[in-house]
Amino acid sequence: NCSLYGLLFNSMNQCPEHSQLTALGMDDTETPEPHLGLWYFIAGAASTTEELATFDPVDNIVFNMAAGSAPRQLQLRATIRTKSGVCVPRKWTYRLTEGKGNMELRTEGRPDMKTDLFSSSCPGGIMLKETGQGYQRFLLYNRSPHPPEKCVEEFQSLTSCLDFKAFLVTPRNQEACPLSSK
What we know:
By secondary structure, this protein is mainly beta. The chain contains two helices and nine strands, in the order H-E-E-E-E-E-E-E-E-H-E. The protein has helices at about 1-10, 150-160, and strands at about 35-45, 60-65, 75-80, 85-100, 105, 115-120, 125-130, 135-140, 165-170. The termini are far apart.
């Protein structure tokens, strides 16, 4: 009986094929049109809780990705709503580079930081893998501030399979802060 339970438990916990992590490639266009516009930060996964600690005080984050002033450049503006209700604006520039068959974003002024984009099985979703000095984490974004619960579960299941056991979901209890246009 015990071994049957073990067998069932293991078969339920089978990791999905890594091919489920589908890198987003670039076509010949200068800007990734489908990725422009508003995104909400939903969840993060990493090997250790320290790699997600930066998100502990966050209630929600809304991003706007726009084409930059130069080809293959993206302007990213964000407003972070802290759990204490404060709005913190942020902005940075990404340069698009071709990675090994996928789209890679390099953050200007942060040569150590690399961001890879992956598709999400969730409608309106996208996954990012951020790699920097001393950390590596997956981040889930969605066009909706409240995507279906199964989206978060699938993200957690996939990242857990890749050995990213620390997990964080933003509460999103407060209204998103307005994005500054500057």
